[in-house]
Amino acid sequence: MTELQDATAPTDDATAPTIPTTPPTTATTGPTAPIMPSGDEDAPALTQDELAAAVHAIADRARAASRVLAGANRGRKDRVLLAIGEALIARRDAVLAANRTDVERGRAAGTSDYLLDRLTLDAGRIDGLADALAQLAALPDPIGTAVRAETLPNGLRMRQVRVPLGVVAAIYEARPNVTVDIAGLALKSGNSVILRGGSAAQATNAALVAIIRDTLGEHGLPRDAVLTIDEYGRAGAQVLMAARGRVDVLIPRGGRELIQSVVTTARVPVIETGEGNVHILLDASADEEMAVNILLNAKAQRPSVCNTVETLLVHSRSAAAPGVLAALIRGGVTLHVDDRARGLLPAGTEAPAATDDDWGREYMQLDLAVRTVDSVDEALEHIRRWSTGHSEAIITNDLSSSEEFIAGVDSAAVLVNASTRFVDGGELGLGAEVGISTQKMHARGPMGLAELTTTQWIVQGEGQIRR
Fold this sequence. Notes:
Layout: H1 3-8, E1 34-35, E2 46-47, H2 48-70, H3 74-90, H4 92-108, H5 113-119, H6 123-138, E3 146-151, E4 157-164, E5 167-172, H7 176-188, E6 192-196, H8 202-218, E7 226-228, H9 233-241, E8 249-253, H10 256-265, E9 278-282, H11 288-300, E10 309-315, H12 321-330, E11 334-337, H13 339-342, H14 356-359, E12 367-373, H15 376-386, E13 391-395, H16 399-408, E14 413-416, E15 436-437, E16 445-446, E17 453-460
Parallel strand pairs: 5-6, 5-8, 6-7, 9-10, 9-13, 10-12, 11-12, 13-14
Antiparallel strand pairs: 1-2, 3-4, 4-17, 15-16
């Protein structure tokens, strides 16, 4: 049995539902006709009814596991997180071998270098995953924490406490690190998790899920606290998105196409995350050296992630602008400029003209749109029109400009004189993140442990009745 099959196989519990793992012997018609989702050639050919039964069985197992996990104390959960990190390092060679398979397949398929970077794991990145799990273990357990507590005038003792969401599903693409981050956060916050990591990273995700599930079992927690539906491909993801009542919340993490597909078609509650058309305003008072350092970090350190800057707004009175743009060009960044910004470029520099397509685009590569503005207010107008609500930043030495910018930005994160690359759960002390929410309900910005909880009201009395 492969690691992926092991990760989705029935538990030893005699009552666990059986999941089909082989194609039906005969074809049928109508709603039970065999289906094979496009782009998932390795997925088993199941009838629609069989597919729904398989995915629902996984969700039901996750529900049963979530009830056990919700009662686990902090010490037990933290020991498991540390053990998973140790197991990742101990079995690193197997993970890297699986990852090479995915990367080689992606390269053969013409996947861009920037997306291959997201897909690739190396020894250092695996060490980083283990470190993130150790950081999670060191954080306080949110479960049982009182959001508010008081004794009412009638003597009732009231508490509102944090409790797990229950069954969390995540759909993401070509990001095997997310497999570990989400599993770790879910375990610490008392939730079970169902993962759909996409065909691009299927071998890597299978290896990672197998390690996590093995470690859970070795420490007496349900292996089914972490499950995957990768075996069932895109069609399985469609069933999961419709599994209202079986899945408590679904979190998509990826590019615009994936996120919008989930948001518009899912029947389960969704937290919208990730798409990042991020802006930085170079204010008139900005220091050139600081601006160069921030912008090179925000654009070039890792261009393929959602907190990378995509548009630079340059104040028309900025003395630092010519030097900043020249430094970006030397750093390998292709600038897409408006007419006034073109006049700030080094002599002889060629740059494509920016269009509305550039203002609304998440490049996720070494391209940057540049527009000139005459005020902070004009910059804010541009951001309001084009922003995805992820993160915005200003580089300035003027306190009034920074205050105006902070007050005027309506995004999940706003930064002053710092790289937008800091909008990340690990960097902001959350240990890791499930994603960066760009919506306003329940959670906004980097989603850590607290964002994977809901609350419960506990009211204790001594016979009180309402008059």
